[in-house]
Amino acid sequence: MKKLQNSLYINTQGAYLHKERETLVIDIAKEKALQLPIHSISGIFCFGNVMVSPQVMGFCGERGVNLAFFTEYGRFLARVQGKQTGNVLLRRTQYRYADTQAAEIARVIVAAKIQSQRQVLQRHQRNYGKHPEISQTIALLKSTVDRLRITDDLDTIRGLEGDAAARYFSVFNQLITEKSGSFSFSQRTRRPPTDPVNALLSFFYAIVGNDISAALQGVGLDPQVGFLHRDRPGRDSLAQDILEEFRAYLVDRLVLTLINRQQVKPSDFIYEASGAVKLKDTARKAVLQEFQAKKQQTIIHPYLKEEVPLGLLPHVQALLLARHLRGDLEHYPPFLAR
Q1: Which of 32, 53, 65, 333 would you call most buried, defined as having the most Cβ atoms within 10 angstroms of its Cβ?
Q2: How far is CA 91 from the centre of its chain?
Q3: pTM score of the predicted model
Q4: pLDDT class for 325, splitting at 50, 70, 90?
């Protein structure tokens, strides 16, 4: 199991990351702003116009440090990967499952995702009282989970997942208790996000998805070959599969907290003429600090029954999936917080 270490997020435009002996150095406006040993971090995330020297890329690949690049919107662009590790037999098993038994794993992932969405809605009602629309959505999501139990058809599973997501986001605006109306949410928009709520969701989904990709590679799995998401060039479909387990629990709850506690404001966003909305640099730094703090929190893992930091959950689930594919576990246990 990887030790939970700090991740380095670089969002200052024009920053330059380079190497000095066994350390990483960040220059801003040609002045040294930060220097730290590479063994103190597990991942580097670069947003927007951040320059990285070829020596750093090779250094990270050699040391197994995840180096990833995103747009200013938080959309994933690329990742530097070192030598492929892990058992080729595990990956061959993964490919066979993807071809012949994908529905088995996809079903439990989708069920866990929908249960987490229900928990977000139920948590809101416990705190703020019942709302007819939300109560109806909770009941409909439960019905969807019941339907999942009796289907082995992958297309049906995908359809149920899409319908559940639409119903969940149809009441998402009700969960925003910040009263100014500046963070109104009508529907999920992705490329690009067209309002502050979608900008935050997309930003954090991209970061968690990249964490999951790194975790899957760490146990020897291929992040691009999934079970729920179809293969598509350039997409880490398996990482997107596992991300479904964490969307509501890790990201949606964090976004709602940031908005409802007014830790982000409308002035923290840039509204472009194209309709795209993105976080300003200063706001991005602030929300990343909140995310890093959240990753340090611990829970009792529902399957392992052990205390685990939230930042290690992608690594735990990657390990459990690998154990299932090897035959050590009869079923893959998706993450579902109690």
Answers
A1: 65
A2: 23
A3: 0.80
A4: very high
